[in-house]
Design goal:
The chain is α/β, with parallel strands linked by helices. The chain has 31 helices and 27 strands. The strands form 5 sheets. It has an 8-stranded mixed sheet with strand order 16-15-14-17-20-21-22-23, with helices on both faces. Strands 3-2-1-4-5-6-7 form a 7-stranded parallel sheet, with helices on both faces. It has a 6-stranded parallel sheet with strand order 10-9-8-11-12-13, sandwiched between helices. Strand 9 (about 240-245), helix 11 (about 250-255) and strand 10 form a beta-alpha-beta unit.
Length: about 775
């Protein structure tokens, strides 16, 4: 977010509960350090001093400028009351942006009110999902995310969730979680100021800590009774004391319930932040239903057992810090035993403690646009669909980059700032890299610290053709020096890195660190995906892997997964083989449904209503430089893999089978126009396109064929203007359904049909003089 130099952005922070106060504290301190214009609005959703003012005092936060005095009520009443009282404040103050954190009624009310008043809303902890609509917090999260202007996501997982829900990527900022900032700072202060261990007469590792406050666990007698029985049982099982700070609402429910409390279950009043953090740091295990405590325990490496069936913090489970047990006593005991047997060495998935700074940078428009120059020089060999975007991306991260391509014409184009192919956003990327002075182009590799090989890998007779990879590697070997890192991004078969190391690079007699990091991006969305997709990095040695991870971490915003070279080589091939097999299955369904006289689209739609089924749609075959060839590389040296080979044969035969189906329905004219040459809609990439087999099918049978595509400019067959081929043809075949075809009224009029895109393989007979088939 940018403001005019003369404009001082006013920031309103809206909060109302203990977790919000704790997690917003780093942001407030950051705003204070920068002398920013901000103020705090407290809804008073947590209405007890133990849950409220004590945290402002301990964390040394400024007093709220406004206290809405809402207090406890039903969800609707509380949310509505906050909105009414908050509106008066916002109309009076007119802040530029409101910051709200989490998933409380306060957050939802702030987002709705700001949206109605046209004030920008920044949501901290955006993208969290439990997928449990019975939790009111889940509704709060979803609604807030979809009306926010700035979405501060904890990590790539939350970013992907938001994008999958239709949130614009430009709104999303992956910053980590302020709980890290707060916990790391608090963990150093708590031992100095808290006396809680002495007061409760407990020592490190000799007790368990419990926090249970979710409405789903404490607001119904049956569920609360189960929680009490679980905690009582854990006292018996562990032979240790359990400390349970209790929310006032829960305390009333306990008094009404009348359950017997185990003598070792110590119930206390709500604790201050540093007292609670001291207990958390020193307990053996924490039992909780709190999302915030799941995070804090993970950061502080305290095993967590969550008394819920789901969590919006799946990262804690994934890294091994947390186990979900609900209220199952046996499950809780098993999780406890596992916690004691597991080494507390998991990684922290919530950031590096700089989240508040990143948030304030964004809100104040002070995020630095000046990238510091890095000392290492990078040489990218191969400036195609992946190599050129990668060269630009690396240059934007501050590295000096030499982009290399053996095509002199391409090099000259790039030096003029022109792009050799169409990719959204790439032209601007190239221009910016050239303006920065960090990106230059050459026809030969130059001495560098890091080399990236991103050249095409071809397939010939169902075997990999590594000529380009080997040629690029030899050119690198001519200038490589001891200690250089060589990264192969090109798709290769298992064992290729080892083979290159033992041949081309061994001959140099230099110590070269070889790594495979397969590219994961798709034409049409490359500029986004090369930055935000997860990456696999596998080196021939652990040191090579680590060095490559450090390098990619400077510009990749997705997660990075270190592995071995052979595992990385296989992973890319498995990804595309999986897709190829599933496409083949969909194409087989099309054939089967045709025999049964059933609409395959309808059947697939119905089948996909099953929550664990996702059948793909049939198509004219498989194209592109990955799915159509990678499966062959995977099974090239394998004795097994019959299903993989069968899927390839099904998809390879698909274009001809559809063409035969067209001819079987009725006789067509001799002049055939093929529209849609690209292998997928709305891109200019025609590599391995099924359209070539369609053209060859009709040419071999004596038909005259002309081709057109709104995006592809060069191909193995001559291309003509669309208007020319449509007016000339007796029959028009649409192989790739570009979006422009459905919107092209001129094309529809020329074809004299109301709907240009007919169903696969069917001949449109609305006009006996002209037939249209969409493959």
């Amino acid at each position: 977010m940018k403001y005019r130099p003369e404009e001082s952005p006013k920031v309103a922070l809206v909060l109302g509960t203990r977790p919000e106060i704790i997690k917003m504290a780093p942001v407030i301190h950051e705003l204070q350090d920068r002398n920013a214009d901000f103020f705090i609005i407290h809804s008073n959703q947590h209405y007890s001093a133990d849950l409220d003012s004590v945290f402002f005092q301990e964390l040394r936060l400024p007093e709220p400028k406004y206290n809405l005095q809402v207090g406890s009520s039903t969800h609707a009443n509380q949310t509505g009351t906050i909105m009414m009282r908050l509106e008066e404040v916002l109309v009076k103050e007119r802040p530029h942006v409101i910051l709200a954190q989490g998933d409380t009624n306060t957050v939802l009310a702030a987002a709705l009110t700001a949206s109605k008043l046209g004030i920008q809303i920044g949501h901290i902890e955006a993208g969290l999902r439990s997928y449990d609509k019975t939790m009111p917090e889940e509704t709060n999260r979803i609604v807030t995310d979809h009306i926010s202007d700035l979405l501060f996501a904890v990590g790539p997982t939350q970013q992907k969730i938001l994008i999958s829900e239709g949130v614009s990527p430009e709104k999303i900022h992956v910053v980590g979680n302020t709980v890290v900032d707060a916990a790391l700072r608090g963990a150093t202060i708590a031992p100095e100021v808290s006396k809680i261990l002495d007061e409760l007469k407990v020592k490190q590792g000799e007790f368990l800590l419990a926090t249970v406050h979710r409405a789903a666990n404490v607001d119904t007698p049956d569920r609360l009774g189960k929680v009490i029985r679980l905690l009582n049982s854990m006292c018996d099982y562990t032979k240790k004391k359990i400390i349970w700070p209790v929310h006032p609402r829960t305390k009333r429910s306990l008094e009404e319930l009348g359950e017997i409390i185990h003598p070792s279950l110590t119930i206390t009043k709500p604790l201050g932040y540093f007292d609670f953090l001291t207990l958390l740091q020193n307990c053996e295990v924490v039992l909780t239903d709190s999302g915030g405590v799941q995070e804090e325990s993970c950061i502080l490496r305290i095993p967590c057992i969550t008394l819920r069936e789901n969590t919006e913090r799946p990262e804690t489970v994934a890294v091994g810090a947390n186990v979900l047990v609900g209220t199952a006593i046996d499950g809780c005991m098993a999780a406890y035993d596992r916690a004691l047997a597991t080494e507390k060495s998991w990684r922290n998935p919530f950031g590096d403690g700089t989240t508040a700074r990143q948030i304030v940078d964004c809100v104040l428009g002070q995020a630095s646009e000046v990238v510091s120059d890095r000392e290492e020089h990078v040489c990218v060999v191969g400036l195609g669909y992946m190599g050129l975007p990668m060269a630009c991306l690396v240059a934007s991260a501050g590295y000096t980059v030499t982009g290399v391509d053996v095509n002199p014409a391409r090099i000259e184009m790039l030096r003029r700032g022109e792009c050799p192919f169409d990719e959204p956003g790439l032209k601007e990327f190239v221009e910016n890299a050239l303006k920065s002075g960090r990106l230059t182009f050459s026809t030969k590799p130059v001495k560098s610290d890091i080399f990236i090989v991103a050249v095409p890998t071809n397939e010939k007779d169902h075997r990999i053709d590594l000529r380009h990879v080997e040629s690029a590697s030899r050119s690198v070997a001519e200038v490589v020096e001891d200690g250089n890192l060589v990264i192969i991004e090109s798709t290769i078969k298992p064992g290729t890195c080892h083979a290159l190391s033992e041949s081309i690079f061994k001959e140099t007699k230099k110590q070269v660190h070889l790594v495979h990091c397969p590219e994961r991006a798709i034409p049409g969305n490359t500029m986004y995906e090369i930055q935000y997709n997860d990456r696999i990095i596998g080196g021939l040695t652990p040191w090579a892997t680590k060095r490559a991870v450090d390098f990619y971490s400077t510009f990749i915003k997705g997660e990075i997964f270190p592995s071995s070279a052979r595992a990385a080589e296989c992973a890319k091939l498995v990804e595309n083989t999986f897709r190829d097999v599933n496409i083949a299955l969909a194409n087989e369904f099309d054939e089967i449904m045709s025999e049964h006289g059933v609409d395959v689209d309808e059947v697939i739609t119905l089948a996909n209503r099953h929550p664990r089924v996702n059948v793909l749609r049939p198509g004219p075959g498989v194209g592109g430089h990955c799915i159509a060839v990678d499966p062959w590389f995977l099974v090239e040296d394998a004795k097994t893999g019959d299903m993989v080979r069968l899927a390839r044969s099904i998809n390879d035969a698909r274009p001809e089978r559809l063409c035969q189906e067209i001819l079987s329905k009725r006789k067509i004219g001799n002049k055939v126009a093929v529209l849609g040459i690209a292998y997928k809609p709305d891109v200019d990439d025609a590599r391995e396109t099924p359209a070539l087999k369609v053209v060859e099918f009709f040419e071999q049978r004596g038909y005259e064929v002309k081709c057109a595509d709104p995006y592809v400019t060069e191909w193995v067959r001559p291309l003509s203007p669309q208007s020319e081929v449509v007016g000339w043809a007796d029959t028009v075949l649409i192989v790739t359904e570009h979006g422009v075809y459905a919107k092209d009224d001129t094309l529809k009029k020329s074809l004299r049909v109301s709907k240009v895109l007919a169903y696969r393989g069917e001949v449109n007979e609305s006009d006996p003089a002209l037939k249209v088939a969409s493959l």
